[in-house]
Specification:
Layout (H helix, E strand, L loop, with lengths): L7 E5 L3 H13 L3 E6 L3 H7 L6 E4 L10 E2 L9 E2 L1 E4 L9 H24 L7 E7 L3 H10 L7 E7 L6 H11 L3 E4 L10 E4 L6 E3 L5 E3 L12 H12 L3 E5 L8 H9 L3 E5 L8 H9 L4 E3 L1 H24 L1
Parallel strand pairs: 1-2, 1-3, 3-6, 7-8, 7-13, 8-10, 9-10, 13-14, 14-15
Antiparallel strand pairs: 4-5, 11-12
Helix pairs in contact: 4-5, 4-9, 6-7
Amino acid sequence: MQQHWPVRFGILLTDPAQRYAVKTVVSECGYEVTHCSDTHLAHVTKNCHGEVNIWLTSQTIPCGMQYGMRHGKQRDSLAQIEQVFIEEVPTLATAEFRAWKQFFKLRLEHIVHNYQRNAGNIPAKDVWLLAASTGGLTAVKQFLSQVKPTMGVGFVYAQHIEVEQAGQLVKTVERNSQWRAEMANTGRFAAEGYVTIIPPEEKVSIGKDGVLGITGESWSGRYKPSIDGICVELATYYQQCSGMIVFTGMGDDGVAGSKTIKDRGGNVWVQSPQTCTAPALPEGVIAYGEYDFSASIDELSCRFNTHMSTERRATVSDRSQ
């Protein structure tokens, strides 16, 4: 998968021995330390803009100094600089220090993972397509409001919509769920904890290492964006780790795509037609495509949470054997 952006640490601790101990552990974990001193934090942050992502300190960042940082020109959202409080570090070369060191390494791993997720910096391992047309925004909003972000999981969202309305999907997703959202951009990827919005005006490809590309070409066929087209891209790269949930809508876009997803070992779920504003889209997949089951939005969200929780437990179990 594409490499993550580097995470840079700044260390601000008064005691020299504690600074040395913390810097040593951070470096052993493979992270870069770009600042290490006992200087007052408010002064340092004014002079280290862009150089530090995560501060390890016993001080407090003044509210006005908690600025955000952009990761690349095409980022639509800001990732807040993180501040982590460091409590008393045990004396070096003691049993207490060795125990603290092991705990701190685990803590660093958790801190970095959360930071990268918030920054959209972790490529998702399981990527599901949210496919919808007429009435779909309300249905997808309801689904996402009940689905919790899970480690390794990301969504792409293909909604038949006018070009000028596409940008509103980002705001709607973030306003009504715990998921972050962004428009698909060249050089990005479907990120863990994010909903990546597929633009209706230009075709999106998934290339080597899961990197997205805006091709400059229009979607083929009458549907924009093309649900069938996105299914091909997802199934080709993510294989059995791809999936699709078909919500309310008109037309038959997604019928061929459902077969593509299933052929590669992925999952296809469908909103039950009787609960849809416009039932044609899910009815087409049920009648002419391939799917695993059909249910209401509440049942789909509940099952998704359970399904992904089970998948994560199985992955952890496999790694421990």
